[in-house]
C-alpha cells in the first residue's frame, strides 16, 4: 500500500516545488511540465533540434524540466554572450550525474570540477602547460604521422582490386587517426602497430572506454527522477571495479614513463610526462593526474573525428567547394610533397571549410551543461542556484538574424568577414566561450584542418554508387556528441603520385 502511494506523494511534492519556484522566481517560459517527470517525455531524442523548435514557440531562453531539475536553454547570440561572458563565473559549475561524479571522483579532474580553487589550478596547468603553443608545436610530428598513416590506409583500401567500385566507411579511418593521436599525445602510446594490430594494453584501454559508456548509460533513465533511483541503484561494485581497472592501466603507463625519464634524463612532451613533472609544483594528486589524462581522451577523441566526418559529407554534397579547396591545395602545396601544419596560413579556404563545418555541425551542439552557483539573471529571467544552463550553439550558428543564408555550406563567408570561432564571436561557438571554453580548441582545429587538408589533397571524394549527393543523410544521432545517424560512406579516387601516400612515421 505504502508503495502504491509513493508516486502520488512524489507528484504532490513535485507540484508544490514547481509552484514554489514559479511563484518565487520569474523563470523563463517553456513547455508545461508534468508532475515528477517534468518535460522528460516531451523531449525528442535529438535534443538540440527539439530545444531549437521550442525556442521558436517560447523565445530564445526557455525552461525545460528534467524531472525536478530546472534546465535553461539559451538559443541566440546576445543571451549566449550574457551567459558565457557577463555571467561567466556564476554559471561556471558543472552538473555531475551519478556516473560522472563516480568517474571523476566528485570533480577532481577538470571537465567535472566545479568552479573554485581546484578548478582554477587545474585549468592553469592546461592553459600554461599542456596546451601551450610550444607543446602543441612539439607534438606536431605525432599529428602528422597519424594523418599520413590515415591517408596510407585509405590508399591501400581504395586501390585494392577487391574493393573496386566499393565505397569506404569514412568514420573507420577518421576514428583510428583520432584514437592514435590522442593516446600518443596523452599517454605517449601507440597501441596499434603498423599492421593495424592492437596490443594488450590497447585492448584493455578500449575495453575500459566501452565499459565506462555502458556503466554511464545504465543510470541515465533514473538520473533526473530521484524517487525512481531505488529501482536503478548505483552499481557501487561495478563502478569501483571500473575505477580500479582504469587506475591500474594508467598507473602502469605512468610508471613506464617515470622509468624512461630516470633512464634517459630529459622529460618527453606527452601529457603524462608533463603532468608527472609538474605534480609537485602544482600540488596535483594522483586522482587529478589520472582524471586529467582521461578527460583528454574523452573530450578530444570523438569530437575531432565527428567534425571531419560532417565536413566530408558537406564536401561530397557540395562538389564546388571540394574542387575549390583542392585547387587551393594544388596551388599552395603542389604535387611533390604533402601538407604540413605550417602550410595552414597559406590555405585560407581550407581553414574556412573547417570553420563552416564546425558552424553547421558542432560536435557538442549543447556544449557541456553549466550549473549556476548562485541566483543569477539572464535575459531578465531568474535562474535559481543549482539550475543547469545549456547554450544551444547549434541553433545560434544557424540563426538567420545573424547569418546570411544560414543553411548554406559556404566557406567564402569567412573570406568576406573574419569570424573567430574560439569564443570571441558569440555567433560561432563550437568550442564554447568564457572561462570554461574548450582548452583543446587549437589542437582540435589543427587536427580537423590537417585531416581535411590531407583527405582533399590526396583524394577526390564521391558518394557511393547509386546515391546522388543530395541523398546523403545529414541527420544526427541522439547524444551529447553528435555522430551522423547514417555513417558516411564514400568513394575516394587518388589524385597525387603514388609515392606521396606513405606514412611519415615518427618515433615519439
Ligand atoms: C573539434 C574538436 C573539439 C570541439 C568542437 C570541442 C568542444 C568543446 C566544448 C563545446 C566544450 C565545453 C565548453 C563549456 O563547457 O563551456 C569543451 C570542453 C573541453 N574540451 Fe573540447 N572540443 C574539441 C576538442 C578537444 C580536444 C582535442 C581536447 C583535448 C585533447 C579537448 C578537451 C576539452 C576539455 C578538457 C574540456 C573541459 C573544459 C572545462 O570544463 O573547463 N577538446 N570542448
Automatic annotation (TrEMBL):
Pfam families: p450
Membrane topology label: Single-pass membrane protein
GO molecular function: heme binding; iron ion binding; monooxygenase activity; oxidoreductase activity, acting on paired donors, with incorporation or reduction of molecular oxygen
Gene3D superfamilies: Cytochrome P450
Binding, heme: 438
InterPro entries: Cyt_P450, Cyt_P450_CS, Cyt_P450_E_grp-I, Cyt_P450_sf
GO cellular component: membrane
Record's subcellular location: Membrane
Cofactor section: heme
Keyword annotations: Heme, Iron, Membrane, Metal-binding, Monooxygenase, Oxidoreductase, Transmembrane, Transmembrane helix
TM region(s), chain numbering: none
Record has RNA-binding as a keyword: no
Stated family: Belongs to the cytochrome P450 family.
Protein's name according to its UniProt entry: p-coumarate 3'-hydroxylase
Species, as recorded: Platycodon grandiflorus
Higher taxonomy: Eukaryota, Viridiplantae, Streptophyta, Embryophyta, Tracheophyta
Gene name linked to the record: C3H
